[in-house]
Automatic annotation (TrEMBL):
One of its GO terms (molecular function) is cysteine-type endopeptidase activity. Residues 250-384 form the Caspase family p20 domain. GO terms for cellular component: AIM2 inflammasome complex; IPAF inflammasome complex; NLRP3 inflammasome complex. This is Caspase-3-like.
Length: 535
């Protein structure tokens, strides 16, 4: 078979055979499957691929920091490719498919080796193409009435959606033994991992697990010993009882709300890439994730109320909420129905930080009382901009696009012609739409205990995003958490991110400085699962 035919055959068969292999119970976890495929081939790949020849193919797949780390740690192409392979072992399956397709460009001999390895594993696992989930793996179940605008949903073993679905739909984040109950509204979820893929199908899928343990809840039992907590505080010298407990098997639940398409504002192109990066980060640190797309302000409030009262919060150690949307002054976060009048944003088309605080404070969200609650916001917080000098050299060094090939977009709600007034009125009109709960002293300080807000920009300033790479903040945040989660306390991780942005300009001569508000009562070590450290 000639080189072109070999690569064509690889593109046609690599993905379906990997998912066929995933039906094997021992390989149903993405990490173990990727490791089994890649481990025996790392030496071959690192000696037969020149990093410089495929670097451009890797840029869309790896974060800037991962590539920088791989290059900085290697003394030559062989070392760099070995580091790249080690990073690839942390990938979810759809990402790994992209990685495989990238490294076989003009390397048909590598394509042959990868396919040989997959076929070898298929032969030894004896998984047939039509083998059902009775083997203890997962099933892909088409959703015939999905309202999602995305054309495909890739399956992922650790992807879960909140609540119970109606008959014929999967129920995840819920006890699988009671999956037949009717819905609570968390049904419009999807896996983001296919969003960067060039080989998508035209069907939506959701995941249903057939496995069940004897624990109170499958996947959420506590670890049998105190070794985990002793390990995570080894650098701090603190007693395990002095830090937040992060020992449940499922470390936490995470909800990501991604508003990309708006009725009156510009589209937030590139935001789906942020979803992918965040999903992978949460999976890496042991969280189960659901993603909700394009929600109105009222729908956002409904989701937050349901999330804050979800029964499984009592079985996990932490909670995370991510909102990716257009924003404005006074920390207003717009729904897809966000609207301006001549007096400013229209009431009922946005939510505020205070809405979030009131829904997740200890007296309301009882299951999370005394547990860390993380809130991540990628949205503008005003109209101010921060310029920088000599950004071109720094942008190239950081691997970010330069002004010659990218348009830097803000998450301020650029209003379409159907809207009433230009968004520049946001700041001047802010006093007219301040939420009624925003007055000083309207809540007790204890209500914000154990909460941690992380913003993509400082108060009053714009947040930025690119069509081709998503938000620089999300890129750096997700890669830094994955790099430091096993060693540093969360406050130190956030400060590391701030230090990075304090010296690294963005494209178009702009700078941004993430902001955070920590009301943590004790040190918070994320304590990723053991497999993450061995990745």
């Amino acid at each position: 078979m000639d080189s072109q035919s070999c690569i064509k055959d690889f593109r046609a068969n690599f993905r379906p055979r990997l998912y066929q292999l995933k039906l094997c119970p021992a390989l149903s976890d993405d990490y173990h499957l990727v490791s089994e495929v890649l481990n025996p081939l790392i030496h071959f790949i690192s000696h037969h691929i020149i990093f410089a020849n495929i670097k451009d193919w890797l840029v869309p797949i790896f974060t800037t920091q991962d590539l920088e780390h791989a290059e900085a740690s290697g003394k030559g192409s062989i070392d760099i490719m070995r580091n790249i392979c080690e990073h690839a072992k942390r990938m979810m399956l759809p990402e790994f498919v992209q990685f495989g397709e990238a490294i076989v460009e003009e390397n048909s001999h590598v394509a042959e080796k990868l396919m040989e390895r997959v076929d070898e594993l298929l032969a030894t696992s004896k998984v047939s193409a039509d083998e059902s989930v009775q083997n203890g793996a997962f099933s892909l179940q088409p959703r015939t009435n999905s309202s999602s605008k995305f054309s495909s949903v890739e399956s992922a073993n650790h992807f879960n959606s909140y609540g119970s679905a109606s008959a014929g739909h999967s129920s995840t984040f819920a006890d699988h033994r009671t999956s037949g109950r009717s819905g609570s509204g968390f049904q419009d979820s999807f896996s983001p991992l296919a969003l960067c893929s060039n080989h998508t199908t035209k069907r939506n899928y959701t995941i249903q697990s057939s496995s069940c343990t004897n624990s109170t809840h499958a996947g959420c039992t506590a670890l049998p010993s105190g070794q985990e907590l002793s390990r995570i505080v080894r650098h701090s010298g603190q007693h395990p009882s002095e830090v937040y407990d992060m020992s449940t098997t499922t470390r936490g639940l995470a909800l990501i709300i991604n508003n990309e398409d708006f009725e009156n504002f510009s589209k937030r192109s590139g935001s789906s890439l942020d979803v992918t990066n965040l999903y992978n980060m949460f999976h890496y640190i042991g969280f189960k994730v659901t993603i909700q797309r394009n929600k109105t302000a009222e729908e956002m409030k409904t989701l937050l109320r349901q999330f804050s009262q979800h029964k499984l919060l009592g079985t996990v150690s932490a909670l995370a909420l991510v909102i990716l949307t257009h924003g404005g002054s006074n920390d207003c976060l717009f729904g897809t129905d966000g609207t301006f009048s001549r007096c400013g944003p229209v009431s009922g088309t946005f939510i505020t930080k205070m809405d979030i605080i009131h829904m997740f404070k200890g007296s309301i969200c009882r299951s999370m009382e005394g547990k860390p609650k993380l809130f991540i916001v990628q949205a503008c917080r005003g109209e101010e901009e921060n310029s920088a000098q000599c950004y071109q050299t720094a942008a190239k060094r950081a691997g970010l696009p330069t002004k010659h090939n990218v348009r830097l977009r803000s998450d301020a709600p650029s209003v379409t012609p159907t809207s009433v007034v230009n968004p520049s009125t946001t700041s001047s009109a802010s006093s007219t739409y301040q939420h009624r709960h925003d007055s000083p002293g309207s809540i007790k300080s204890a209500d914000t205990a154990d909460m941690c807000f992380v913003y993509s920009s400082s108060y009053g300033y714009k947040a930025y995003r690119t069509r081709s790479a998503g938000s620089p903040f999300v890129q750096v945040f997700s890669s830094t958490v994955r790099r430091l989660a096993y060693e540093k306390e969360f406050r130190d991780i956030v400060q590391e991110i701030q230090r990075y942005f304090n010296t690294e300009p963005l494209p178009n001569n702009m700078m941004t400085l993430p902001d955070f508000s920590l009301q943590l009562m004790r040190p918070w070590y994320l304590n990723p699962p053991k497999w993450a450290n061995s990745a």
